[in-house]
Amino acid sequence: MEAIFDFVRSMFSWLKTSFNISNVVEILVLAVCIYYIILWFMKTKAWTLLKGLVIILFIMFIAQIFQMKVISAIISSAFSVGILALLILFQPEIRRALESIGQRNFMQNILNFDDRAREMHFSNKSMEEIIRACYDMGEVRTGALIVMENNVSLGEYEKTGIKLDAEISSQLLIQIFEKNTPLHDGAIIVRSDRIVAATCYLPVSANMSISKSLGTRHRAGIGISEVSDSLTIIVSEETGHVSLAYGGEIIRNVDRDTLRKYLIKVQNRPAVKSRKWSKLAKHQGKDKQNVEKSEVNSAE
After folding, report:
1. Which of 205, 217, 244, 251 is disulfide-compatible with 222, CB 3.0–4.6 A?
2. What is the dihedral of CA 276, 278, 283, 284, to 10 degrees?
3. Which CATH superfamily hosts domain 119-299?
4. Which of 230, 274, 232, 263 is nearest to 250 (CA)?
């Protein structure tokens, strides 16, 4: 027991130093950072790896207390290259985290190098053609994956597909995603009023909280929204429902008016620009009820 007390005293010997305001602020900042890092880890496959590291640290702790020199030497040798090993193991997660930080609004305001985003707006005609195509495909159970590029360039994913550079039309979109056609597999990327590429491969989300009922198409739509600020429209082949992915979140089974609202948000119109994604999501159910009521009234 004396060995345990000595080890604990040595671990917390730094507490003898005097505290001041900066120490308190530093502890609070570190606590918040650690909390959000743990939350982030829990949503990825890295959570399993992190639990493995915790077990190894616990074994190391026991070995130090009971003076297990061989085990301590082996673990110490392993930890000598631990930083490099962590970078290799968590490379995909670290990359996603850095990309997520870089996409925050305050970073975009500080690092606003060009006005590229203002030149990328699609027209109302293109928006209506996309909406018409999505619901026409939904009626016949044709799966589709349409990525609307926003401020973050999708050139990396555009290169994985076939270059088109075609004007947006509902007929073309339906033809691209028609089953058993050469271009139907994968996603299309839309930039401004052009379909720039088809059959593009997208990163599949590793978020463990996503519903198991969602297939690869929906996970790919969420995945691209996690690494960019794009808006992804997903048409389910099984149900024909239209879903949206934005900012790592998905809203399922949206109606035409709701889809139009999100497209206007990406289009950056002044009337919708200040609204948050979450606020629009809250009004989804209300908008859907209004649409259904209007359809009943028109039928009567």
Report:
1. 205
2. 120
3. DNA integrity scanning protein, DisA, N-terminal domain (3.40.1700.10)
4. 232
Q: 33, exposed or middle or buried, with CB in 10 Å at 0-12, 13-18, 19+?
A: exposed
CA distance 149 to 68: 57
**Gap between the Cα atoms of 118 and 140, Å rounded:** 36
CB 218 within 8 A of CB 148: no
Domain-wise residue ranges, the chain: 20-109, 119-299
DSSP β-bridge partners for residue 189: 147, 197
- CA-CA distance, 126 to 119, in Å (whole number)? 15
Residues 6+ away with beta carbon under 8 Å from 266:
148, 150, 231
CB 295 within 8 A of CB 257: no
Residue 290 pLDDT greater than 60, yes or no: no
